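[job 0412] stage=fold_complex status=start
inputs:
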Amino acid sequence: MDADAARSQLAAALVRTGAGDRAALRIVYQDSSAKLFGVLVRILKDRSEAEDVLQDVYVTVWRKAALFNPERASPITWLVAIARNRAIDRLRAGAMNRRTAPIEEATEVRDVTPGALDMVVKAEQQARLGVCLGELDEKASQAIRSAFLDGVTYEQLAERMSVPLGTMKSWIRRGLLKLRACLEA
Amino acid sequence: MSDTDDIAPEDEGRVLAAEYVLGVLGAEERRQVEARMAEDASFAREVADWEERLGGMASYVMPATPPAQTWPRIEASLGPPPATAAAQTASLWQSLAFWRAVSVGTSTLAAACLAGLVYIGTRPPTQPPRAPLLATLTGLKTKQPNFVATIGSDGVSLTIVPAALLTTDKRSMELWLIPEGGKPASLGLIAAGQPVRINIPPELLPHLGGGAALAVSLEPPGGSPTGQPTGEVIALGNLTRL
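[job 0412] stage=fold_complex status=done
writing structure:
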């Protein structure tokens, strides 16, 4: 199945889930759970916690699928947004009794494999994002990717990359605006 | 603030939406952003746009197969089909923002909707523009607003937007124009989950005046076989001039 067909199938399954179709939710799960579980494990760094949140995510999808608008959102980014929000909220809630990530993890910011295109993300949109991220200042690009993938706060990023908080905020904010300009160009 | 001095004031909402999606904000700031999304439909759209822009970064993560017991656990914890939950709670921030915007007739959202209608309208140049018509269709039992319909100043193009998922019913939803004192006339089938635009047939245009109403009924697939509503009427509202 090509990427467009995969995307259409996932979008259609989400729309049917929104109408209360459990079999359609199962299709959504089959087509997206490995992606979402990967995202959750990366953010939470703990498989059993990630599994816990994954359950929560699909129960939320069941309740909220009626809000999915295939004309406005691509199905996988809509699902990823729900998963990331859950995981980030979980991280923030646990922040009190969890030490921030050790500094050594800074070097562990895994890098982009340009060939790793996702089946269900529109290929050209994906390629464009890669190009636009590449046009940013190296550090801003790294900080933005790290923030997205690890769900870390400004403070944690500043610590990881050993720069003052204000510098980190400035890199990311300016980087985001440049990214937007590049994507809309 | 020294760390925001390079952001233009008009970019602040945009940057905040991006920071929320990126995930760099603390718990309290995240709740503030979510509260703003519930209040401000255009800000909520900005957040959704950033989800689209940045979401592709998820493809940099290696997929990981979840444990086999995850799906059975999910299935066991699903509630009943989400008709009521989706309509009343899950869509709350959207519909709240939406209805607040609509209730203020001059709001930017309503204005944007109407501007859209005017733009795509097919009004003959000789005909003077008319004030747009608006109908809020509420559930007969629930009294909840279920749809909003607008007829643009061309007087022809009708857009109907569902505010919430109404039903898990597999039957079709059919939209009716009910002239004052007259019989319902079908305007066609509409979709549960998305806005639909319909051009009002010329023969019905004279009936759009004062006292006309719109209604939505549940019908067999393909629509009413009789030309009149045969199933339950799930939403009803009067057309009023803005």
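[job 0412] summary: The helical segments of chain B are 12-22, 27-39, 41-55, 70-76, 83-90, 92-103, 108-120.
[job 0412] exit 0
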